[in-house]
Amino acid sequence: MPTIDIALASYNGEKYISDQIDSILCSDLGNSGFSLKTIIVSDNYSTDRTAAIVMEISQRHANVQLTFNNKRGIIHNFNHALRHSTADYIMLCDQDDIWLRDKIQLSMQKLLELETQDGCDYPALVFTDLAITDSQLNTLWPSFFDYMKIKPEGSRLPANIFLSNVAPGCTMIFNRRLLEMAMPVPEQAAMHDWWLLLVAATFGKVGHVGQATIFYRQHENNQIGARRSRFWEMLFCPRKKFRMARNSVETAARQAAAFKKRYGLIPEKSLAAINYLTGFSRMSRLQRVQGLSARKIAYRTFFGNALLYVLALVLPVIK
Hints:
Elements: E1 3-10, H1 17-25, E2 35-43, H2 50-60, E3 64-68, H3 74-83, E4 89-93, E5 98-99, H4 103-118, E6 124-133, E7 139-141, H5 144-147, H6 158-161, E8 173-175, H7 176-182, H8 192-203, E9 205-217, H9 231-236, H10 238-263, H11 268-279, H12 285-293, H13 302-314
Parallel strand pairs: 1-2, 1-4, 2-3, 6-9
Antiparallel strand pairs: 4-8, 5-9, 6-7, 6-8
Helix pairs in contact: 7-8, 10-11, 10-13, 12-13
């Protein structure tokens, strides 16, 4: 019977982590033909009661495992959790959300569809939509995709995904082949989930479920959270938006360089976006604009793409 591990990275999450783990344990797998193997909690030496809470849960549930990671940062913490996985399939998990009962089953069904088409020797990843809630789980927006103006089918286009992530890690499920190819996620990666998506889209298959499977809790301690750009910010805070756009391109370029260094032989469909990003700072302004016109990279909104053209024209050319 195929097995699934859940990799959960925790740090000072005492307020919500018990509810999160309980929601996973209450998942309805039905007659799915696969089983939940281990919930692996990698704790970054929390200073609150997070570890004690997980330890208490593990004493009641043998498939909850607590391990400690002393290397700071989200990427290192997830790397640590993923190194402990031995299952056929893996899901990522944050410490403060709530999983709906059918999340695992819907995600796994879609992933098996991909493997039926191409086999399990290819890396495969599936992500789902989320419902955005407040700290009390009152729904603020029923669809993360709609709120963030994300077209999930864009996850198949390297021009889109090498510039910005479209798949929240807390909704991801992937096969062991992807884990083997992607690990360890390097420090130069912008984020662990983004790196996994790039590997899957470049060398294998990516699919999505258009249904929300998580209550994505927004609270004062969110590391990332759901936040979209507003039109008024473009008008009244142009310098701030320019700095943010420049930082985004620089981050994407560092990640693309790390990707190229790691894998070397990369399919042409992804190589154009990688080469454009890594060479952006040294290109002439005309070359930058020509690359954007050819959609070597693209953002998901009109104003995001407009900012790319501004960057192309304004940023200095580094010799």
